[in-house]
Amino acid sequence: MCFFSKPKVAAPPPPPSIPTPPPKPPRQADPATKAERAREKKQLATQQGRKSTILTGPRGDLSEADVSKKTLLGN
């Protein structure tokens, strides 16, 4: 195999022209949509607040309790 020779494979043809992207949707939303978004955002914020206080699952704490009593100076 010679590294200095040209490859014998032809290049693929160029792709067809790229179509233009669709126009951007209008930025103005109706008041009902804005109210619904605000309600969802508030609901998510309150749910996040509750999740931060729950430290266990629905079955509770399943880990073993440390009930061994330590003695002073190994007695």
Q: Short summary of the structure?
A:
With 75 residues, this protein is mainly α.
Keywords:
mainly alpha, single chain, 1 helix
Would you write up a description of this structure?
- The protein is mostly helical.
- The chain contains one helix and no strands.
- The longest helix has 21 residues, at 31-51.
- It is flat, with a radius of gyration of 33 Å.
- The model has no long low-confidence stretch (mean pLDDT 77).
What string gives the helices and strands in order? H
Shape: flat
Helical residue percent? 25-40%
Number of strands: 0
Q: Kindly provide the radius of gyration, computed on alpha-carbon positions and rounded to a whole number of angstroms.
A: 33 Å
Continuous helix count: 1
Q: Could you tell me the strand content as a percent range?
A: under 5%
- Contiguous runs where pLDDT drops below 50 for at least 5 residues: none
Helix and strand content put the structural class at: mainly alpha
Reconstruct the topology from this structure.
Blueprint: H1 31-51
